[in-house]
Write a structure and sequence with these properties.
single chain, about 250 residues, mainly alpha, about 70% helix
Length: about 250
């Protein structure tokens, strides 16, 4: 880019990336939402997606460690708490996003210890998620923050996912899908800070292009996970060695 965008133009460019690249457009997501997957395929999605959910706090911890300002660290730390949950007395039921995702995998009939072990996830899942964690660990802070902005588009996909799954699958219910409801308020809160930071601190055309590339990269991470699922579980004979087999 050779021309500096205004902050509003930068936001519009970011939103355009989502309109073109967000994984709500992926055929696997469309099949999930439209009730075209069988129980096994939904199980495979939940099992593999757990690895992404479980690594989000690690990704955020890398970023918190690098933020130079205490206020920035306090603001970003809430993301870790959202996923890991609060510090509770031993034996109390955990309330974080990871615990709620395990309720989904429990409800789908997957063994909890096996899910947590991540032994059965696809190689494509592991490589995509690890690439995202490493991106946030290694890239400049501006790009690391920008990569989180797929959350601008998550309320739409969450609404689609919950309504579609409740309508089409008799093996899920509101309780098993409890992960998603808090995200409808958590994600906009997170976006407000991250988007404001990016619009304020991307001050040159090169920095703005780096911000846009960071969001393109993150969209690719989410897309690649669904590519791996579609290849392994929607076509016979494609499940790789070591991955979960129904």
């Amino acid at each position: 880019m050779s021309t500096l965008l205004t902050p509003d133009e930068l936001e519009a460019a970011l939103r355009q990336i989502g309109a073109e690249r967000y994984h709500n457009l992926h055929p696997f997501h469309r099949a999930l939402h439209d009730g075209k997957l069988n129980r096994t395929q939904v199980q495979a999605w939940a099992l593999n997606r757990f690895y992404y959910q479980s690594r989000i706090p690690a990704k955020d911890a890398f970023l918190v460690a690098r933020l130079p300002d205490p206020q920035l660290r306090r603001l970003w730390r809430s993301r870790i708490e959202d996923h890991d949950g609060d510090l509770l007395p031993e034996g109390a039921e955990q309330n974080g996003g990871i615990a709620r995702w395990l309720k989904l995998t429990d409800g789908l009939g997957l063994d909890r210890d096996y899910v947590i072990s991540t032994k059965g996830i696809l190689p494509g899942t592991r490589h995509a998620v690890d690439a995202y964690v490493n991106f946030v660990r290694d890239k400049p802070i501006l790009e690391a923050i920008a990569s989180s902005l797929t959350e601008m588009f998550s309320p739409t996909i969450i609404s689609e996912r919950v309504s579609g799954m409740l309508r089409h699958y008799d093996f899920v219910n509101q309780e098993t899908l409890a992960y998603f409801t808090p995200r409808l308020t958590q994600a906009p809160k997170d976006v407000e800070f991250a988007l404001g930071y990016v619009k304020e601190h991307a001050k040159t055309p090169d920095e703005q292009e780096a911000v846009l590339d960071a969001l393109r990269f993150k969209c690719g991470v989410l897309w690649a996970q669904l590519d791996a699922l579609a290849y392994a579980y929607m076509e016979p004979g494609n499940i790789p060695p070591g991955a979960w087999r129904p």
